[in-house]
Amino acid sequence: MTTKIYTITYNWSKKIAVKIGITRIHFPGLHGILLRFSGVNLSLLSRVMSSRLSRGTYNGGLLSTEAGTLARVVADATITLAGFLGESPNYKFLHQATSAPPISYYDYIIIGGGTAGCPLATTLSQKATVLLLERGGSPYGNPNITDLAAFGKALSDLSPSSPSQRFISEEGVINARARVLGGGSCLNAGFYTRADSQYVRAAGWDGRLVNESYGWVEKMVAFEPPILRWQAAVRDGLLEAGVSPYNGFTYDHLLGTKVGGTIFDGDGRRHTAADLLRFANPKGLTAKKVIIIGLTGKKRPLAHGVVFRDASGIKHRAYLNSGPKNEIIISAGALGSPQLLMLSGIGPSDHLKAHNISVVLDQPLVGQGMSDNPMNAIFVPSPSPVEVSLIQVVGITQFGSYIEAASGEPFVAMPAEKDFGMFSPKIGQLSTLPPKQRTPEALSQAIESMKALDPAVFRGGFILEKILGPISTGHLALKTKSPHDNPTVTFNYFKDPQDLARCVHGLKVIETVIESKAFSPFRYDYLSLPILLNMTASTPVNLLPKHANVSTSLEQFCKDTVMTIWHYHGGCQVGRVVDADYRVVGVDGLRVVDGSTFIYSPGTNPQATVMMLGR
Fold first, then answer.
1. What Pfam families does the annotation carry (predicted)?
2. Which among 607, 587, 422, 605 is positioned nearest to 35, based on CA atoms?
3. Most buried residue, 114, 143, 344, 572, by most Cβ within 10 Å?
């Protein structure tokens, strides 16, 4: 038994493109259809059982994904577990794509080594051979990912090798998608909390298995955060505002105010879904890309294997072993999974034909039901220093708004490099430079000018609200046939009036917290609530039109200052695109397991539930 992991990154110097279009295989009655994966940086984790490398013939063609790549390789080995919590894991099953065999065989192929894909691959590796595909590199050794004090720097990194890929919704809200092993758990603010029991019942999940799976995740990546002055003031302010009872520290989703978990440990080190690979069977993991085959004589298309090109342009093929349970599983996220299906010919037929994509399955619901939980925040300058804190305390209100807070240097000013955290001209959240003006030269000039400002201007933090659901939905569509390009996505923020009402309720709670006795040490008396609202609204957080004096209308403030909290979901929803077991309706051997299957976002932060789902 051998173990292999490939980490593949895009060769930007050669710019070898993923082939687009239909790959036709010259077998009578058969044609292969490319199941394309958005983006090209792949981290490949593979489990290979040499005794099961069946060389059986397949009377079918391939759908090939061919990506230009650079890669790293590590020789076959077992995982070293010692010292894992304090150091980067020594995943010695890493291999370079250029060293991959021309043909290989697996029981399962997973596309996307993110928040769902890593625990999914780990789980399946116990009894089967697994090929895991991830377009990004490793999170380990990158302090912009691992260090709490550096939060926001990965999001503001616009380079081709960044673990974050920016996209902008059609409304003009600036957003990001992960391209790194561990997915969004490498970029987020770290809050860890479970879905509520009603959500679990509505999803039709086995409650016992859900709890066991949450527990499995929590052994590795969840911690109780230290509550210091800023977070304590927010907690006590929420209780003064009537968001009660106080539920203490808990992972559970309970009405009232609580302290939730975090994926940052006591040393401020991030633990991600990639850490869950520690539990993988070290005797088998690898990664590449997907294939769907249309078989004449069968009523349904069949997912069959993957093809990719390495940095040298050499083609490698990975097939599913023969067997009724062997499958390809897409875990490419709420943008990547529906995009991948569409590029493979599974989606609305008219839309696919408009892009000259052969239709394998007319499925008009692929890409529908896209939602992003809108976030609105109020920046509160503080007369006294505040600790570095990400999301730790949450107020879960009865009207469907969640109140959270964050503070300190990651959000305002980073003395070491003066990138100014969430005020960075590079980021949408409270950026100081309008998005259309964010050229490299303008970014440098803006950062230099900000260095001259009094540091007190940036001292403080945010109190924010995110709404339940949301009810408002939009859609995703292909922009081009290239998997390198982001699709277009429309979320229709606040289209449903109930979403807007929840935002207004949440802002009123935030106002009460700011004016509470508990929060008074962190508030300038002369900065009234209208001033704080207008000050926050004056920052170019998005591309939406602005209105003067939004403090007179909280509804307008919600609309003008809407931001993402990166909890977007939908596009491959259960009961619409996949069935209750996450099988793609109308296609054999293919499932989707990630946040694209959600109707609503679970709890106050979805990452715990996405990892649980993968398990």
1. GMC_oxred_C, GMC_oxred_N
2. 587
3. 114
